[in-house]
Amino acid sequence: MGETTELDVLTSQLQQTFKLVQHDKTSMRFFRSTLKDLSPLVHEIELYNDRLNPPREEIKFLIKENHAEQRNLCWNKFTSLFHQFCKKKDDSGSCVSDNKQAVMAKDVKDTLYKLREILNKENFDKKISGSGGLIFRGPFGVPQIPEFTVGLDLSLSKLKTELLRDGRSTLLVTGFGGMGKTTLAAKLCWDVQVKGKFRGNILFVVFSKTPQLKIIVERLFEHCGYLVPEFQSDEDAVNELGLLLKKMEGSPILLVLDDVWPGSEDLVEKFQFQISDYKILVTSRVALSRFDKTFILNPLVHEDAVTLFRHYTQLEKKNSNIPDKVLIQKVVKHCKGLPLAVKVLAMSLSNRPYELWEKIVKELSLGCSILDSNTELLTRLQKILDVLEDNPINKECFMDLALFLEDQRIPVAALIDIWAELYGLDDAGIEAMNIIKKLDSMNLANLLIARKNASDTENYYYNNHFVVLHDLLRELGIYQSTQGPIEQRKRLLIDVNENKRNWWLGEKQKGTMTRILSKCFKWCVKPKPQQIPARTLSISTDETCVSDWSQVQPALVEVLILNLQTKQYTFPELMEKMSKLKALIVINHGFRPSELNNSELLSSLCNLNRIRLERISVPSFGTLNNLKKLSLYMCNTRLAFEKGSILISDTFPNLEDLNFDYCKDLMALPNGVCDIASLKKLSITNCHKLSSLPKDIGKLENLELLSLISCTDLRELPDSIGSLSNLSLLDISNCISLSSLPEDIGNLCNLRNLYMTSCASCELPISVVNLENLKVICDEETAVSWESFQSMISNLTIEIPQVEVNLNWLHAIRS
């Protein structure tokens, strides 16, 4: 168990104070307001995460070194701010606070800057060659565990015993796909005793079939707080990682390598560094050799499988249509103890007619054991999908999830773009989200919301929503997509990276998916040009492979997905032949933004409606007259939109939807953006360096939505914003530097939704009395400002979303 720290005590005090005031509206409002004073601290930590997120161990290290008095003074000031929040009520029953909001925000910011100066003085220059200790921020990459698990306790106990031993060892957990290996590894990482030993020095890395060592090591370097070097090769990357980890000599380290495939044993051995107390935990579907101990994860015993099945069908909570015990036993028996199959089948049958249960049992009774082979497992799961096909689009959308790289989060925003073009789903994403929630309810996919915003109630972009797909279910999607002749398939997946190609051309026992993809690849590169029949083409490639696609004829492709793991990518000339292309999705899974070359050829694609780029250095496009939507996520925009370059209004003259999210270098909107008269939606979110909007933004007369969430440096809105006569939604949540709204805001006659969470310091002009039929969605403190106008504004609605009150973010200081 870890020691109780001062921060733990402070957190406990805050929780106790909250309990005392939660039933007193006045005290509760003051308490919330006091906690809100810490928002500058939270945003500074977010903005300067690399430099100003020292864990408790780092503070201890600093105190031991020179300038001890200065460090102690700084830390004491830092913690004293928290103590001020924990004062109990005074004799009169009101909460006490010595500092006002502005003073406290300034003190917190000053303290953070002092901490940064101290770190700089300590020569934390992020170079491996320098002296000093390695600083971990906390557990890296550990997935959340399911709320309910069975049958893992014995394996967990045995593995934990090995991990808690001193010394160096490499352990292997093996079992069928979908058996729960990743869940077991995650439970270990979150175990109290394991966390107590390894503290923040837990690294969870997904290997997959084609591990990209340089990318893995780059992210580990970033996590450890060092500037990421330019690695010349995989060997160079691993060598540098070894030097990095050896700086922690004497502190236990746990490295989890999840989903390791045959042929990667040599790569795993590269991570076996000579460190005194260093554990490696490997999970694999195959019983790989060369490791110290192997733990086999067996199928669930029948009783546990029934318990798991009943939990996910929630039979005990239903009063009707409950099948008899014999039928339940038969259904579970056909899952052969495979947890994934149990959960999928349970959620599929939950609250379904009795006749469907009988039909499923009959379907599953045909053939061999579900565990006889990977192909047999996929066939059984496929039968479940066929029987439960209420809506053909649901099945098509499930198969589309396999178009993305394995073990990677799939952006919901990208799925909305794809499905809007392929199936005509609504552009707002409501229908798409209903399908995703359906798949999630069936355990065929997991919906992940990275950060919950108040504006999520409006659901107009879903930028924080992702889908996570189990690799076995991804294989099911591929298997479903590849049934029937290639010439008749709706979607085509091609992986052309060097490692995968070696698998394609290898032995037959390499795997079902390997043989499927190999057949696709060989068919596509026949000497005679082949017409690709698919509407959707997904290509995955890394920097080791250069391919000639001159023999491919993609004239029917409507959606192109490029999954990149490369520093540069050149659009192939064949794209000029994609006359029906409607949506282009480019996702770079590498650490640094990828550069796109030959982007000018996109100008010839007259049907291209949508482009979504992720982790890309945005190129200078030619003229895309018909482009309606451009989404840039974590992109570098400077090269494309810097001064002197072509005006964005000339490049995208008919653009209707422009979305920037987490674009760190975006300090101002591109020149000419206010000349795009067709623009209806403009979203600039989490772009912390954006300090101002164009003064002539009022020229966007057709603009209906303006979102500026978490643009923390934005100091004012232009007066001309009052000319946006069609604006119906404005979101300035978490724009903490906004001191006031412009006087002309009252001219927005069509404004219906205004999001203002964390905007209590933003003054409202008297002109807001003209905003009729307005709904303001905000926190309690901001609501106080609007309440004084409530009697003067017709049909004003103030909505305060219910949010979970917790103090978990305080622990971010240590992690």
UniProtKB/TrEMBL annotation:
Keywords: Plant defense, Repeat. GO terms for biological process: defense response. Residues 156-310 form the NB-ARC domain. It comes from the Eukaryota. One of its GO terms (molecular function) is ADP binding. This is Disease resistance protein. The keyword Repeat applies. SUPFAM superfamilies: P-loop containing nucleoside triphosphate hydrolases (SSF52540), RNI-like (SSF52047). Gene3D superfamilies: Helical domain of apoptotic protease-activating factors (1.10.8.430), P-loop containing nucleotide triphosphate hydrolases (3.40.50.300), Ribonuclease Inhibitor (3.80.10.10), Winged helix-like DNA-binding domain superfamily/Winged helix DNA-binding domain (1.10.10.10). InterPro entries: Apaf_helical, LRR_dom_sf, LRR_R13L4/SHOC2-like, NB-ARC, P-loop_NTPase, WH-like_DNA-bd_sf. The keyword rRNA-binding does not apply. Pfam families: LRR_14, NB-ARC. Residues 651-795 form the Disease resistance R13L4/SHOC-2-like LRR domain.
